[in-house]
């Protein structure tokens, strides 16, 4: 029985180690904060909503404000002035086979106008963009509205736009567009991932050097592989050990 508990503890340690070593990178360019905040309650009509990301949203990013009954209420979004975040956001970058955290203290907003507020209930703000390293940035913010109900302004036409197909294409499938005017050369920036530059209004800064070679993956999975081998050896040796005779 004692040996069985030893095996259980070894397996538990193996699972915990794999969870730490093989931890996936946090999505880059993620949503940091929004106004109104997620799951908050709004008591009066707002002319625009503000979504702050850890980097400037792609120029063709998609935003939609949807009422409780499913009506689109958003207008053409625009970039706003960056601001310092009350709480820094941590994102992870793979550097030489190790996940290294980096704190982002500045929020880059997307300002989304709201045409009118037709009903009370739960509203949803949907967004789709691409981070500077090519990762898909996608999600939604829900909040409740219990303020005054209004009618659609004269000439209002609900938008029916969909996300730009280029946003949904993986970076490897996007042809390399070349260096934009005024952009720094890759030689001066160091190694970086191939990214769909055409999705951005300006060259995106390199937040951290990421290792894309096979050595990084080998190091990341080396420790779990060794632990798995150790567990197998322990189990085999246990099976071969003769059972204790009852005196």
Automatic annotation (TrEMBL):
Keywords tagged on the record: Copper, Membrane, Signal, Transmembrane, Transmembrane helix
GO (cellular component) term, any one: periplasmic space
Species of provenance: Acrocarpospora corrugata
GO BP of this protein: response to copper ion
MF annotations from Gene Ontology: copper ion binding
InterPro entries associated with the record: CopC_dom (IPR007348), Cu-Rt/internalin_Ig-like (IPR014755), Ig_E-set (IPR014756)
Top-level taxon of origin: Bacteria
Disordered: annotated span: 172-191
Domain called CopC: residue spans: 28-144
Protein known as: CopC domain-containing protein
Residues passing through the membrane, by range: 218-237
SUPFAM superfamilies in UniProt: E set domains
Pfam families on file: CopC (PF04234)
């Amino acid at each position: 029985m004692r040996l069985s508990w030893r095996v259980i503890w070894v397996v538990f340690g193996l699972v915990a180690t794999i969870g730490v070593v093989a931890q996936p990178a946090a999505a880059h360019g993620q949503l940091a904060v929004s106004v109104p905040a997620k799951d908050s309650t709004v008591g009066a009509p707002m002319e625009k909503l503000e979504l702050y990301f850890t980097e400037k949203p792609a120029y063709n990013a998609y935003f939609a404000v949807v009422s409780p009954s499913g009506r689109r209420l958003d207008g053409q979004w625009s970039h706003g002035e960056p601001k310092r975040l009350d709480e820094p956001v941590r994102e992870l970058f793979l550097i030489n086979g190790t996940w290294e955290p980096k704190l982002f203290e500045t929020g880059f907003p997307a300002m989304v106008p709201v045409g009118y507020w037709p009903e009370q209930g739960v509203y949803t703000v949907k967004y789709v963009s691409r981070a500077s390293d090519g990762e898909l940035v996608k999600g939604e913010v829900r909040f409740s509205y219990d303020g005054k109900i209004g009618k659609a302004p004269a000439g209002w036409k609900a938008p029916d736009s969909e996300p730009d197909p280029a946003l949904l294409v993986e970076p490897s499938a996007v042809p390399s567009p070349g260096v934009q005017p005024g952009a720094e050369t890759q030689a001066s920036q160091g190694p970086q991932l191939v990214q769909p530059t055409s999705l951005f209004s300006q060259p995106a800064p390199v937040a951290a050097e990421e290792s894309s070679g096979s050595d990084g993956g080998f190091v990341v999975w080396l420790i779990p592989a060794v632990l798995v081998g150790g567990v197998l050896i322990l189990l085999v040796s246990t099976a071969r050990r003769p059972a204790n005779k009852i005196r």
